[in-house]
């Protein structure tokens, strides 16, 4: 009996060690993938990020606002970026007008119920946006119907559109004025790239407007 218990304990310990090693390998791979994607941004997107920042800076100088939309994790990124602009990023400065159209559940559910989920952003843009504004649309696939419909509405109102998506860009890539397509097909990596780029843009806009 004692020998059997010893074998069982040894087997269990070996399994635990193997499981730990596999998990650690997974962690290492995930972090390496993240690092490689972030490094690639400077090679592939630095000019686009600067151009986006200048477009947003000009929008603010002209009295416009930034409007941001996305679904799921991209909705969270929309709210995150809006918060950095309305609050502050690194500088203690005047608040900048920015709004994520993902936060009013009464509006969203009413529109989804009455007109369909595809309208939850476009309908809001009809009433809130004007041609001085910049619309940032975030979609990892570039194919979300409510995002594409919102872009159509924005273009009809002569609003500049920045699209943040993945490597392929989907249908969105041919519809926007500025395309920030993270060079990855993996949704988590794309989302990590989006918020990194969002932070950089907030920092550049803030410095351009307020850093003496």
Structure overview:
By secondary structure, this protein is of the alpha/beta class. It folds into two domains: 1-44; 45-210, Glucose-6-phosphate isomerase like protein, domain 1 (Rossmann fold), CATH 3.40.50.10490. 59% of the residues lie in helices and 11% in strands. The chain is built from seven helices and five strands; from the N terminus they run ααβαβααβαββα. The chain has helices at residues 2-44, 46-61, 73-86, 105-114, 122-128, 145-156, 187-210, and strands spanning 66-70, 98-100, 134-138, 160-165, 178-181. Strands 2-1-3-4-5 form a five-stranded parallel β-sheet, sandwiched between helices. α2 packs across α7 and α5 runs parallel beside α6 (145-156). It starts with a helix and ends with a helix. The mean pLDDT is 94.
Note the topology.
Layout: H1 2-44, H2 46-61, E1 66-70, H3 73-86, E2 98-100, H4 105-114, H5 122-128, E3 134-138, H6 145-156, E4 160-165, E5 178-181, H7 187-210
Parallel strand pairs: 1-2, 1-3, 3-4, 4-5
Helix pairs in contact: 1-7, 2-7, 3-7, 5-6
* Count of distinct strands: 5
Could you tell me how far the N terminus lies from the C terminus, measured between alpha carbons in angstroms?
79 Å
What does the oligomeric state look like here? single chain
Strand order of the largest sheet: 2-1-3-4-5
Major β-sheet profile? 5 strands, parallel
Structural class: alpha/beta
Q: What CATH architecture label of the largest domain applies?
A: 3-Layer(aba) Sandwich
The name of the CATH topology of the largest domain is: Rossmann fold
Q: How many structural domains does the protein architecture include?
A: 2
Name the helix and strand elements from N-terminus to C-terminus, one letter apiece: HHEHEHHEHEEH
Q: Fraction of residues in helices?
A: 55-70%
Can you tell me the CATH class of the largest domain? Alpha Beta
The Rg value, from CA coordinates, equals 22 Å
Count of alpha and pi helical runs: 7
CATH superfamily of the largest domain: Glucose-6-phosphate isomerase like protein, domain 1
How confident overall, as mean pLDDT? 94
Unreliable stretches, pLDDT < 50, 5 or more residues?
Answer: none
- Shape descriptor: globular
